[in-house]
Specification:
about 100 residues
Amino acid sequence: IEDLKTCHATNSKLKFWACNDFKFAMDRCFKLEKQTILKSMNDGFEERRKQEEDVFQEAVGHTMSFEEYLRQDKDYNQELEKSKSRKPGAFKDKAFSS
């Protein structure tokens, strides 16, 4: 950051590309720092998410998640199977044929 400030102070504003190397180095550094921070923030995310979901389910009196409910829903599963057998773009063809 100090090198970039010095470069800006010592070069003409008309020569705006003069400090690009310092800027690129600083951007790489910030990108690495951001990746490190995001990685540490997301460690254990799935476990925390599951715990939050469990607490919510308990609070509202539900015994199964929405995904589990859908897996057990007969009508939903029938429609899902029907959708797999449909030709891609069938709805679009039907809509534009009129």
